[in-house]
Write a structure and sequence with these properties.
It is a single chain. With 307 residues, this protein is an alpha/beta fold. The radius of gyration is 22 Å and the shape is elongated. Helix 10 links the parallel strand 10 and strand 11. The chain contains eleven helices and twelve strands. It has a seven-stranded parallel β-sheet with strand order 8-7-6-9-10-11-12. The structure holds nicotinamide-adenine-dinucleotide (NAD).
């Protein structure tokens, strides 16, 4: 049996190779990007592992031996899932490999904003050690942390924020305001969380309902001096509105890992906002998450091939 990795943004496949070897399956790394390249590279393969390559109906029809497709990561938007289902091809993803890492990152952004770490570092390197230009920082134990989206990552972030001393509450349309979660986090309405938090951390999927959830109107409902953290999806936030709120000081700071356009454009006004802390969609990234992702993506398809 043969599994073809259609494409991967690196050439390290030690984890995948170990699982393939244990199952007695041949593994080939192709680095194909187009439909034709995938079809050419994957002839005779029983399964594909895919990062960004297009797995369309045409590709699947041209590769009748393929019985399983595994996606590196969460999203399956480069895969025609409907066609796969019709053709009897099992599709799998790895939805939760980065829960710990993304929640760690959200906390790292919140803490570096609360303590001005990046701003102070930037000033110091530029020769300024005076605290006069730095607005007073936050003592975490007196502050409230609001989580929008209490799913896997939101719940983990809430637990970690509470452990640091924040008072924590959250909003999720799947939960009744006035109740508490199984972790003891108070559930409130979205407006209560917006108006009652010093840090708001976003953990929602990008959907029609969550597109531009944070805009001029929602920012106005937030406390003056609040901080915004976004490790979910860039489109959840109206960038222009956030830039405006940072400039006016209504937002004390913003920690952003995801952007409406990625990579973040060179001329993005966010780059000129000194109270923004920016990371390049790196929340998921760790030695442990990468290892887990690679192992699980191939285990998923090996399980299908083993019947
Ligand atoms: P999840 O499905 O476990 O949780 C999402 C939660 O959001 C659910 O509880 C859902 O009910 C809630 N929700 C939906 N619409 C909402 C709304 N309008 N307001 C408030 N809550 C709403 O997902 P997850 O695994 O926790 O992932 C959360 C986000 O993190 C996703 O956007 C995902 O794409 C993103 N993510 C980012 C990275 C990164 O590297 N930056 C890595 C992995 C995931």
């Amino acid at each position: 049996m043969k599994i073809v990795i259609t494409d991967l943004d690196q050439d390290r496949i030690t984890e995948e190779q170990a699982v393939a070897d244990a199952a007695g399956i041949e593994l080939v790394l192709a680095q194909a990007r187009t439909e034709d390249e995938v079809i050419e590279a994957a002839r005779g393969a029983e399964a594909l592992l895919v990062q960004y390559a297009p797995i369309t109906r045409r590709v699947l029809e041209a590769l009748p031996a393929v019985r399983a497709v595994g996606r590196y990561g969460v999203g399956v938007d480069t895969l025609d899932v409907e066609a796969a289902t019709e053709l009897g091809v099992a599709v799998s993803n790895v939805p939760d490999y980065g829960t710990e890492d993304v929640s760690d990152h959200a906390i790292a952004l919140a803490v570096s904003l609360s303590r001005g770490v990046v701003e102070l570092d930037r000033n110091l390197r530029a020769g300024t050690t005076s605290l006069t230009p730095v607005k007073p920082l936050h003592r975490i134990r007196t502050r409230t942390f609001g989580v929008i989206g209490l799913g896997r990552i939101g719940a983990a972030t809430a637990r970690k924020a509470r452990a640091l001393g924040f008072a924590v509450h959250g909003y999720d349309p799947m939960r009744e305001p006035g109740t508490t979660t199984e972790d003891g986090i108070a559930v409130r309405t979205q407006d209560e969380v917006l108006a009652g938090s010093d840090v708001i951390s976003l953990h929602v999927p990008l959907t029609e309902q969550t597109h531009h959830l944070i805009t001029t109107g929602t920012l106005a409902r937030m406390r003056p001096g609040a901080m915004l953290v976004n490790t979910s999806r860039g489109g959840v936030v109206d960038t222009a509105a956030v830039v405006e709120a940072l400039r006016s000081g209504h937002l004390r700071g913003a920690g952003l890992d995801v952007f409406e356009t990625e990579p973040l454009p060179q001329d993005s006004p966010l780059r000129d906002c000194p109270t923004a802390v920016l990371t390049p969609h790196a929340s998921w990234y760790s030695e442990e998450s990468e290892t887990e992702l690679k192992r699980r993506v191939i285990e998923n398809v090996v399980e299908v091939l083993a019947g």
